[in-house]
Structures are given as C-alpha cells and as structure tokens.
Amino acid sequence: MTKEVLHVGIAQIAPVLGDVEANLQKHLNYIKQARELGVEVLLFPELSLTGYSLREKTLGVAMGTDHPLLKQLADAAGDMIVSAGFIEEAQAGEFYNAQAMVTDGRVLHVHRKMNLPNYGGLEEAKWYSKGQALEPCEAIAGWPMHTLICADLWNPALPHLAMLDKPALMLAPVNSAADIVSDEFSNPQGWKTNTDFISMTYGVPVMMANSCALEGNSRFWGGSRILDAFGHCLVEAGGEEALISATVSIKDTREARFQLPTIRDADSRLVLDLLAKRIGK
C-alpha cells in the first residue's frame, strides 16, 4: 500500500575539499540526526563526500560503487533512503560526477551527471565523462524518484524526460556558488526560478540540496529547499550547515497534476517528430 505522506530531509553541509574521511563522518552525523527525526528520504548535496573543486584531486577520491565507504553509508542509513554525491570510477580512469542512493546496507541506484557545465568558472567536462542514462528508482513503494544533478536541471529536455516517468519525488543535489557563472547571473535567484518552475509545471515535490562550503574564492551559498507539488516552498535553509525537513503527500501530487496535466498532455510523439526534423536538417 502506497504511503500517503513522506517525511523528507536535506542535509546542507560544507564538505571538506578532498577529505573523504572527514566528510564521511559528517554524513554519518547527519544520518543519525535524520533517523532520530523520522526522516525517510535524506538528500545530501552534489559531491557531498568529496567537495566540488577537485580538479587534480579527482584521482585520490574516486571510488567504485562497491567501495566500503558507500557500504558504511548504506549500513548507517538503515531503512532510510540516503542520497549522497561522490566521484564514481567506473573503469580505470573513467570518472563520473555521481549521486548514489543507498539503504539497508546496499546501493540501490546511481545517477551519473549528464550535463557537464563548461562555462564561467565551471570546467567539469575537462575532468569527467558524461552520464548516458536517466532512470527512476522506486526506493519506496508508490514513490518513484528521479535524480538530476545540478546542471542537468538547466537542460530543459532532461527534467521533461524525467517527468515523463511520472516520478513522485525529484531529487536535485547541486553545488551552486554565488558568482561562479558570471557577475551578472544570480545563482540564488536562478535556482529559485528553476525549482519553482519544475515543481509547479509538473506537479512534483522537489528537494534541492546545495553545499554551503567555501572553496578558495568560491562561496557555495546554501539555500537548500523543499517544495511541494504545487511549487510552494515548504522549508528553506540559510547559508550555514543545517538539517531541514518537511512532509510531502501523494494527495497533493494527484491534485496538482489534475489541475495542470502537463505530463498527460506532453505529446511526446509530436515532440519526437519535431526533433527529428531539426536533427535531419
């Protein structure tokens, strides 16, 4: 039987750049706090186990999905669903910016970031391979979830494709520094607009987890937020480390998608035909 209400949480943390052991302890502390609060899904930011600006440090922190550290996280999670960011080494020298979903001693799902930004102060395409798959994970019966990592949500086609699977929850781990794109572009305002739009347009609760670390001259501004299926912000963090939580409901999703049937009316065949014409030019 589908749970009507889900208690979800975000651990907004400041990872120590390149120090996986220190970051693991931080994860374990927040997992303990979240379990005590009865949180059922806990989301950490993008690259939460490593920090963001790794560059040459990538080799030293990369791990496979069978790494004991992920097993330790999964054991600590118990029956809670925990999503954490790491550098996945799939084959020797093949690295992905990835997010692992773990529970009850095992890795359930891994999403590899597909849209690697290479503009402003961002240069991910220099270090990582592009993910090639977009698959939901039904970690809790009746609550299929999709994960999109940071810039994945800025390619409008990717959230749209994800929403065609009709997920009940969208996980959005990010690493957003205030001025990393340009002096004119406001990342804090941009992310509010982005998550408001996705939640309201598709009738889906959205969890956006940002870092609040300081890495060199880059200040990650925090502002993690949880939205309901109508695009209303239920809770929002400030600029410091924090655990925030809220409840989201299937009832809201049903009503939101009835009022605004974006997914029902998406007309994927028409979109596919229009894309084929443009690709064929």
Automatic annotation (TrEMBL):
Domain (CN hydrolase): residue spans on this chain: 6-250
GO molecular function, one term: hydrolase activity, acting on carbon-nitrogen (but not peptide) bonds, in linear amides
Protein's recorded name: NAD+ synthetase
Upper lineage: Bacteria, Pseudomonadati, Pseudomonadota, Gammaproteobacteria, Vibrionales
InterPro entries linked to this entry: Aliph_Amidase/BUP, C-N_Hydrolase, C-N_Hydrolase_sf
Keyword annotations from UniProtKB, A to Z: Hydrolase
Protein source organism: Photobacterium lutimaris
PROSITE patterns for this protein: CN_HYDROLASE
Keyword Ion transport appears in the UniProt entry: no
Nucleotide-binding among keywords: no
